[in-house]
Amino acid sequence: MKLLDNSKLEAISEALTVETGDCKISGKVESYSCKMAGNDKRLYKMISSENGQSPNDLQALSPPQSAFHLGPGQMLSTSSSSGGEETGPLCHTCSRRMIYYLIATLNASFHPDYDFSDAKSSEFSKEPSSNWIMNAVDSNLYSVLGDMYAGLKTKLWSAINDEIVLNECEIYSYNTDLESDPFGEEGVLWSFNYFFYNKKLKRILFVTCRATSKSAIASGDSGIGFDLQTDIDYDDIYMEETEDYDGYNLRQRSTPVN
């Protein structure tokens, strides 16, 4: 994966690395070409042909994060057993090639501190709604940054849409294992990791952020279980996917592309 230069995304990433009160925010927005680079070929071969399988073989993913925060009138999709009993959320699948793209993006973004090469398909989810993801990101960041984020929000989503064309994307999320990645470190309060994959552009845009309690680190408290979002109701912020999000037309870039 090759990191693509984008001055707007770099400026936003810098703005998302900030301390406010007891909370330290570490965020970044990066765009990657799906073209293999460096050790990518070795990783691709390892992931795509593991256990004699092919790159197009499908892998089961975990249920989407949005399945557990439904909007008004929305029903959770479930699978049924032969007896007609509901057995839980219906999981998505994706190809082993797609798993490679997601893992390679994580490796590129967190190199050399972390290696995600052993991550399994169950550590990822496919998210069906771009509007839900946008609301989730906004809610997390606004909960700790307040008006500081209100001034950044428009620039963030305009730059992302210009780079990746949100309405053309498949969206995936990474579910931290809380042990071998930066999102399980001492004092981490919450984190999110979203991948916007545009097949036409052969590009992935990666949005990652974590909030860390400085006092929890100082006291040796892991911080896990403390929720900065206890006053946020996802039902209240849910928006129908057919609507534009906060004035954005997700069907096209906000500025022309040469």
Outline of the structure:
It contains 8 helices and 11 strands.
Walk me through the structure:
The two termini are 23 Å apart. The strands form 3 sheets. Strands 1, 2, 3, 8, 9, 10 and 11 form a 7-stranded antiparallel β-sheet that branches. A two-stranded antiparallel ribbon has the order 4-7. The protein contains 8 helices and 11 strands. Strand 5 and strand 6 form a beta hairpin. It is α+β, with helices and mostly antiparallel strands and 258 residues long.
Report the uncertain regions: 70-88, 222-244
Helix content: 25-40%
Q: Kindly, what is the distance between the CA atoms of the first and last residues, rounded to a whole number of angstroms? A: 23 Å
DSSP helical segment count: 8
Q: Characterize the largest beta sheet: strand count, sense, and whether it forms a barrel.
A: 7 strands, antiparallel
Give average pLDDT, whole number. 78
Number of separate strands:
11
Helix-strand pattern? EHEEHEEEEHEHHHEEEHH
